[in-house]
């Protein structure tokens, strides 16, 4: 069985500095990797107005940060240059299939976990999943806004998945 950690993207600023949300996800992924350093890592995130306005893919910033913590280059699988959760899973499919991955550890934020579970488990029914939820170091008001956004987009994700599976 081949396993990998998927670190889902979060915003960075116009200079490429990772947000506290992205850092919390990376730190949780690193902690898990430290205990199971045979695992491969897939970093997600491309370029988009709502999360990364630089010309460097967000996934590269995640990878750079994890390498600065001590994850060797050899543990990384190709970057997935996606713009949103649904695309994270769709674009990761090629990497997952090419490397014969049968088990995934999905690392995201606690408020984002229901959507990540829905999308990944539907697109990869044959994969065994473990989910890690990073605590998001934001104010209660900011978290409430993020939770509302997640509730609002869940129906869209269900429609996307339904269309994909027809």
UniProtKB/TrEMBL annotation:
InterPro entries (UniProt xref): Cell_Envelope_Assoc, DUF218, Rossmann-like_a/b/a_fold
UniProt superkingdom: Bacteria
GO cellular component terms given for this protein: plasma membrane
Residue stretches making up the DUF218 domain: 4-128
Record-given protein name: DUF218 domain-containing protein
Organism: Shewanella woodyi (strain ATCC 51908 / MS32)
């Amino acid at each position: 069985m081949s396993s990998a950690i998927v670190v889902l993207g979060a915003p960075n600023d116009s200079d490429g500095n990772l947000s506290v949300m992205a850092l919390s996800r990376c730190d949780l992924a690193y902690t898990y990797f430290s205990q199971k350093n045979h695992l491969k890592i897939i970093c997600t995130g491309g370029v988009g107005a709502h999360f990364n306005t630089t010309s460097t893919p967000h996934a590269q910033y995640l990878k750079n940060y994890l390498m600065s913590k001590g994850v060797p280059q050899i543990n990384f699988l190709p970057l997935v240059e996606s713009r949103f959760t649904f695309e994270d899973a769709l674009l990761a499919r090629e990497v997952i299939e090419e490397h014969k991955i049968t088990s995934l550890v999905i690392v995201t934020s606690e408020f984002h976990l229901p959507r990540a579970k829905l999308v990944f488990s539907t697109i990869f029914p044959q994969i065994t999943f473990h989910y890690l939820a990073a605590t998001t170091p934001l104010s209660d008001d900011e978290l409430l806004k993020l939770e509302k956004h997640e509730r609002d987009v869940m129906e869209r994700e269900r429609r996307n998945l339904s269309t994909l599976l027809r």
